[in-house]
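Researcher: Structure for this, please.
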Amino acid sequence: MARPDKAAAVAELTDQFRASNAAVLTEYRGLTVAQLKTLRRSLGENATYAVVKNTLTKIAANEAGISTLDDLFAGPSAVAFVTGDPVEAAKGLRDFAKDNPALVIKGGVLDGKALSADEIKKLADLESREVLLAKLAGAMKAKQSQAAALFQALPSKFVRTAEALRAKQEAEQGGAGTPAPAEAAE
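Model: Predicted structure, token format:
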């Protein structure tokens, strides 16, 4: 029979897995408490970093429907539960791991899909959601401006062509009926 404190820990971890849209499993062997505190701050306000027990976390992940992390629960483990932008948390982990090689990113899960450590690093190389949305909006605005310029160019080109034809007709009609100035002088 499971002890009540372990059952409560599994229930809490299960809720965290279900509430987060991403989770990154790391090994923190060799990091000090102060370094872990710095890491928690670098993840941003939409992520929590918790040192976990492998057996309880494996049970919680399976209860949440995540079985792809089972092979990664070895050694001292900690999980970053991300409820906001996963790119921001991945960047925080990547940058912290560059400065502190003791932090090893094992893998993770994003919206139910398993991610390897390399995929998490690729995710960290992406720009933030806000920047990507701003670029998309700029591209859409540019296309709309191009379309507006095209639609405006067609009528103005038509008007210029019609005016050129009218001027040409006037020149042809005016030139045939009146004598040239050189002929009138004779």
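Researcher: Any notable elements?
Model: The helical segments are 4-19, 33-42, 54-63, 86-99, 117-125, 129-177, 181-184. Residues 132-177 form one domain.
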